[in-house]
Design a protein that fits this description.
This protein is of the alpha/beta class and 269 residues long. It has two domains: 163 residues, Rossmann fold; 96 residues, ProC C-terminal domain-like fold (Orthogonal Bundle), CATH 1.10.3730.10. 55% of the residues lie in helices and 13% in strands. An eight-stranded mixed beta sheet has the order 3-2-1-4-5-6-7-8, sandwiched between helices. Strand 2, helix 2 and strand 3 form a beta-alpha-beta unit. It is elongated.
Length: 269
Amino acid sequence: MKTGLIGCGRMGRALAMGAIDAGAVGAADLLAYDVVDAAVEALRAERPVTAAASIRDLASACEVVLLCTKPQDVRAALKEVAAAGRDPGELLVISVAAGVTIASLEHHLGGSARVVRTMPNTPALVGKGAAAFALGSTATPADADTARRLLEAVGTAVEVPESLLDAVTGLSGSGPAYVYMLIEALADGGVRNGLPPDQALALAAQTVLGAAAMVQTTGEQPSALRDMVASPGGTTVAGLQALEDGGFRAACIEAVSAATRRSKELGQN
């Protein structure tokens, strides 16, 4: 399936390379375009994709378009896609542009356009992303499969109604920053108690990675896994009590809620 990539920044490159490496797209079947030629060449240095001379040429040749531009550049890019003269229903456009609604994408492409809006996150850059996607009004189950296959090449993907993408933004979109702060704080705690900074950071990062893997592989609820570690009167119970006293759980919940509210505000502008 001929696939076009518009926008070869970090996320665009991650999705393209992940899709190629996972066999979701053949390198020979991927066309790439960016207003900055060097960005395309950076991708071509990693994988043998084809550089497209223009967005119109790309849209004319492809069945699927990955739209990975900045939000402010979406309108101009879609204008060029529409100018290729394709029947809007012949082309699937998968957008990763934050805050650009399905209605806006469909408006700029034409009423019968097949659109999927996605919300990935930056760990996709290392193949550990968490993404959600929502289908446009004329997108098909096959389009959902295509979007899922591309996103799962760089992590985990779930389908949600578009109305929940703001919550996804607050949780997994912004979530890596919360976890980085957690890792930093754990490492700082280790340093305060005598560990060298490099060892403290390594232990903190691996602890978060290992705990996440336990949740994913065991199928147990986090609360059950927590209880397995927390012996009555032991060290873990003392640490957990300190977190509860400091409002840790409430702060995490409010962080997701605050980011969700901000995402909704930005989407209205």
